Automatic annotation (TrEMBL):
<dbReference type="InterPro" id="IPR013210">
    <property type="entry name" value="LRR_N_plant-typ"/>
</dbReference>
<dbReference type="GO" id="GO:0004675">
    <property type="term" value="F:transmembrane receptor protein serine/threonine kinase activity"/>
</dbReference>
<keyword id="KW-0732">Signal</keyword>
<keyword id="KW-0677">Repeat</keyword>
<keyword id="KW-0433">Leucine-rich repeat</keyword>
<dbReference type="GO" id="GO:0005886">
    <property type="term" value="C:plasma membrane"/>
</dbReference>
<dbReference type="Pfam" id="PF08263">
    <property type="entry name" value="LRRNT_2"/>
</dbReference>
<dbReference type="InterPro" id="IPR001611">
    <property type="entry name" value="Leu-rich_rpt"/>
</dbReference>
<protein>
    <recommendedName>
        <fullName>Leucine-rich repeat-containing N-terminal plant-type domain-containing protein</fullName>
    </recommendedName>
</protein>
<feature type="domain" description="Leucine-rich repeat-containing N-terminal plant-type">
    <location>
        <begin position="32"/>
        <end position="71"/>
    </location>
</feature>
<dbReference type="InterPro" id="IPR032675">
    <property type="entry name" value="LRR_dom_sf"/>
</dbReference>
<dbReference type="GO" id="GO:0009742">
    <property type="term" value="P:brassinosteroid mediated signaling pathway"/>
</dbReference>
<dbReference type="Pfam" id="PF00560">
    <property type="entry name" value="LRR_1"/>
</dbReference>
Length: 151
């Protein structure tokens, strides 16, 4: 009887250990996904002043990169790249940053369309794109963003 109880307890412990490991693993994959999304933005932009130099995709997550802010779960909530002399185009992968609240890209020379995938960013509070040279319409998907205050 005692033996059996012990065994049950051990099983519980190993189950908990597995769950913890699994959640760490999932968190890692998820954080890397956001790093990958930002890194694809980096590769798509010309960056004459090297403001994106710290955006190293081999790090576990993008939370230590300059101009990137994360929440306590290591998920990106801010990207601050205003007035950074960037040119090139945005990437649809930005739509993967699901906790993003602030996307500041004002006063650069970014061209091309505004990806409709930005409409997937349901937590977006501020999207500052002014003083760039985007082509095409503002995607209708952005109209879905109820928290958005600025454009
Ligand atoms: C954009 O590019 C033009 C010409 O290349 C340059 O004169 C201007 O200063 C740039 N603007 C910004 C905000 O970098
Ligand atoms: C955004 O949502 C649309 C529609 O659900 C989906 O097709 C698209 O793949 C999403 N984009 C990203 C980057 O997740």
């Amino acid at each position: 009887m005692v033996m059996k109880k012990l065994k049950k307890g051990e099983e519980m412990v190993s189950l908990v250990v597995w769950l913890i490991l699994l959640s760490h693993l999932l968190r890692r994959i998820y954080a890397n996904m956001e790093g990958d999304a930002l890194h694809s933005l980096r590769t798509n932009l010309e960056d004459p002043n090297n403001v994106l130099q710290s955006w190293d995709p081999t790090l576990v997550n993008p939370c230590t990169w300059f101009h990137v802010t994360c929440n306590n779960d290591n998920s990106v909530i801010r990207v601050d790249l205003g007035n950074a002399a960037l040119s090139g185009q945005l990437v649809p992968q930005l739509g993967l940053l699901k906790n993003l609240q602030y996307l500041e890209l004002y006063s650069n020379n970014i061209t091309g369309p505004i990806p409709s995938d930005l409409g997937n960013l349901t937590n977006l509070v501020s999207l500052d794109l002014y003083l760039n040279t985007f082509n095409g319409p503002i995607p209708a998907t952005l109209g879905k963003l109820s928290k958005l205050r600025f454009l």
